[in-house]
Amino acid sequence: MAVSNLVKQFGRFAALRGVSAEFAPGRLYAILGDNGAGKTTLLRTVAGLARPTRGTVTLLGSNEIRAVCHRIGYMAHPSLLYDEMTGMENLRYFASLYGVADDRRCADAIRAVKLDPGLERPVGQYSQGMRQRMSLARALLNDPEILLLDEPFSNVDIHSAQEMVGLLAAMRKSGKTIFVVTHQATLLENVADEFVWMDAGQIVKRTQQLAVST
Amino acid sequence: MNKAPNITAATLVKDIRLEWRSKDAINAMLFFSLLVVVIFSFAFDPRAEESRQIVGGLVWVAFLFAAVVALNQTWARELRNQVLDAYRVSPAPANSIFLAKALGNFLFVVILEGLMTPLFVVFYNLRALGPVWQMVPVAALGTWALVVNGTFFSAMSLRTRSREIMLPLLLFPISIPALLAMVRATSAVLTGEESTSFWIALLVAYDVVFTIVSLFLFETVLQAE
Amino acid sequence: MKRAFPILAVLTAGFLGYAGYQALFVAPTDQMQGDVYRIIYYHVPSAWTSFVFFFTNFVASIVYLVRRNPKADAIAVSAAELGVVFCTIVLVTGPIWARPVWGIWWTWDWRLTSTLVMWLIYVSYLVLRRFSTGGQAPVLAAVLAVIGALDIPLVYFSIWFFRTQHPQPVIGEGGSVDPRMLHVWLINWAAFLCLGGLVFWARYRVETMQQEVDETEALESLLQPGGSR
Question: Inter-chain contact C136–B224, Cβ cutoff 8 Å?
Fold first, then answer.
């Protein structure tokens, strides 16, 4: 994946001010930085949710994100699920958006995040940890090559968070490319291949280790 | 493979199921419809002779208010938890969700009309002097005209402040030809004094034009960020 | 622009003066309405001018949707604003004319009514621009402009049919058009186009300058010398 001179303006505010970078496949990147640094905007632009004001995004060999969107999985801090439906119902619906009509795929995805496919409770009654894990299951439905996760561990209990990290590590081993925006960098300390630091709409530093520095 | 018609059907079924489970919008709307008819009965005396002349307009203004309240909650569930992002990120075509939402709104508004019409007939002692069957195409075409633009503008208003006021603000001026047609056709049927054919033809033209335009432009509106 | 603008402004003022003189003194007096009818030389050319601007807005909006060129958006918003201004002139001169001639302020004449609806549509366009969040105003407004422009013919047609069934006093029709009147109409239209074009140019320049300011402000680094942020 590569971004070139990416600028994203919201009226008078530029969330991204000329971001250029290349990212290799099969690695896990942790994107870190203060609030307002542009991490979420970068992720949304790469996911195709926000249209760049200037610059290009190249994903899986294509300049057109819509052309490869079936190979991307996206997850954010809100659950992107319907509170009034059960986990299976939610996944069944979102699977249909990808042309997948297979109940087993949905059940497998739910089991992969260590949840029970048979749970009849509506998602709105889940704990935050369960909800985030179900959201991750939704992001995995289409077996994406690239995963874009925006603050997946926010407000999540430590057990669920560690489950998710373990799952991400396993997926990275199987060749997926993963981008995680997070404030809790320590969770990914031993799992991430690279830490990408952003500030004021630009990438300022890329490190292999999570160094304890200013 | 996207299987677009399946996505429309799946979305529509999902919306109906969700609405059936929570019933929050439909219950409020039912009561709202009754209230509207009662209020109108106080504002426009049903016993007066002039009422028969204007009731065509009355009915459609009442339907319009009910429709706006229904349209304003089109995307309510998708906004909670940012579900719309999940849709936008998927390869599903934007038009599938538009059609599903428009059809859902159409069903919803038709149900409301079905409830309000007998109330109007009763409160205003309505008798149609013209061909009553013509009300079916008029109501169907007219409702679709309101709903197709209403669903489109409700999506547009997602990206604005004062969402609830933007929808009617955008919808009303654009709908004027269709409203005129609905009102004149309804009056024609009630008074039996005019022919509805021009107005039905106008509604057909309006519906065709704006359905095509909405389908063409919805993706732009949905992905505007 | 700084040099050309004042010269053009003076020329336009002169032209308007000439056109006004034509309208008030040279054009023949109407047989039925007397001198009151002379307001038609403001009423009708304003309507034609507003159509020109709204059509410009339509084309510019389509161009913007296809190419996302900010200059197209600047043209679109300037044209819409000018169109609304001239449309307002039509709606104000209508009653001013109707009152002495027919004794009522508003006649629901089909042209005036349709113009009112057109005014409403483009005012809603301007409101949408102001209320859009996240910098999406140009896209959303362009979409609305296309929808509105396609609606206008339907508006005019439906109201025309409605009014021919229920005849009302019609503004602008009464007897045949004296060729000398047509001549004055066209002169006034040309003068209004000059005025409109001049103000449009100024508005367009303001808009493009505002776009540049916004962009520069947005991209300017927040890092101050000697510290971070």
Answer: yes
